[in-house]
Amino acid sequence: MTNRLEADTTKITEALAPGKSRRNRPGRIRERNRDCILAAAEREFALHGFRGTTIQGIAERAELPKSNVLYYFSNKKRIYCALFDSIMERWNAMLSEIEPEDDPALTLARFIHAKVEMSRTHPLASRLFAMEVIQGAPIVKDHLRTTMREWVRDRSGVIQQWIDDGRMAAVDPVQLILLIWSSTQHYADFQAQILLIENKAEYTPEDFDHAADFLTQVILRGCGLEVPSAEAIAEAAEIAEVQAG
Amino acid sequence: MTNRLEADTTKITEALAPGKSRRNRPGRIRERNRDCILAAAEREFALHGFRGTTIQGIAERAELPKSNVLYYFSNKKRIYCALFDSIMERWNAMLSEIEPEDDPALTLARFIHAKVEMSRTHPLASRLFAMEVIQGAPIVKDHLRTTMREWVRDRSGVIQQWIDDGRMAAVDPVQLILLIWSSTQHYADFQAQILLIENKAEYTPEDFDHAADFLTQVILRGCGLEVPSAEAIAEAAEIAEVQAG
DNA sequence: CACTTTCCTGACCATTTGGACAAGTTTTTA
DNA sequence: TAAAAACTTGTCCAAATGGTCAGGAAAGTG
């Protein structure tokens, strides 16, 4: 009954205490329930937005009493913020550095594929982010103004260098990043529309591959670049993963 | 005190009764208030989604008592639906027909420009639509399954014909339409993100022109098409407008 | 002008909301 | 194993919600 206000700080026990079995490690209950609540909240918030989501709704989806949810997160906003913390962290992890020496075509192709993959594996996070931004980004405003702005500045600098070196057509680098961002995001955010138009009940894994290939083709060609082979892209992605891991 | 339930049908008096002055034409109060409520509702729904929007909030923005709002629209859902009726109508009006004989480059360029223009003139409608689709399109589901599917089928048929005739590169026509849709929509829906990244308080009119030109360049080139001059695009748009009017 | 229709709105209501809290149970620790 | 810490949850509450309704004001009509 003690730590009510600080109850929603992340990762109390970072590493397992030595000698404790995994099953009985302290904090495991907290971890399990937090994860469960966050998963439920992600669905609810992505479905109804911040104001439209009720704690009761989250609780029901998590199959916990409302009071229990409020034990772990002192109020609705904290749940919402906790979600964005983990979403932003994940994005930062994915969006790797690029260097002027890198190959433009391979780098862009890899970025497109990674972003589509993100839409496939984390569609709810994508929709949640979309909702937040549509509503004026009240929570992630700071993050966009700082981290993401910097991220875009760095990347567009490298792209501009590629252009100056004559390695690709002269297109506005920021616009190019926005184009890749929006067209890839779209598969997660507008899933309902796409499925209805294509008369399908669900995406198949190939849908994402096709989408990524299509986007790579059109955008790279649009930038005056040769489209690398699928193998080359996959290979580049693997190298990047090894470097990151 | 009579027509409470049918109060929210559109356009009671289609034409002005002859001999009536415009100021005193019956139904003018209804029309004015309905418009006012719908404008307020558009902002609120685009900002908070369906569940997150309150009638009280709409009423306050429209500077009317809540009861008055409920006099014109018997419940929240009716307001929401009325909005989508007008949005869909506007879109249908904009999205003109295309023929296999048309020039691919000019037609696509015009479509991109028209869509960006839509993001500029009706950003709230765009965001409202985005919210609706993210939430699974509960209201516009039918429209997407019928009208919009047909629309995409027709267009992609023509594009496929262009490809078969060797007039453009072989790209998936449906994916192409989705790409144009998403990249143009993005400027309205993710306005907050773009402005924060570009460190601006507001869009300038040129921002939209730049965006449209950029997208035209990259997408058309990506489809193996020559990019028409800005004048040619503007001219084609005017001709289309005359034909539509 | 009288009378009908349309418009307006304050008062009201059942339900839901976010959240506080106390009294309990379970788990961890010394 | 007993005390401490962590966890659980039913109960409660004030405020907000969607929506009703009756009764009055204004506008339109013959």
UniProtKB/TrEMBL annotation, chains A, B:
The keyword DNA-binding applies. Transmembrane segments: none annotated. Residues 31-91 form the HTH tetR-type domain. The keyword Membrane does not apply. Residues 54-73 bind DNA. Pfam families: TetR_C_3 (PF08362), TetR_N (PF00440). InterPro entries: Homeodomain-like_sf (IPR009057), HTH-type_TetR-like_transc_reg (IPR050109), HTH_TetR (IPR001647), Tet_transcr_reg_TetR-rel_C_sf (IPR036271), Tscrpt_reg_YcdC_C (IPR013573). Keywords: DNA-binding. This is TetR/AcrR family transcriptional regulator. It comes from Microbulbifer taiwanensis.
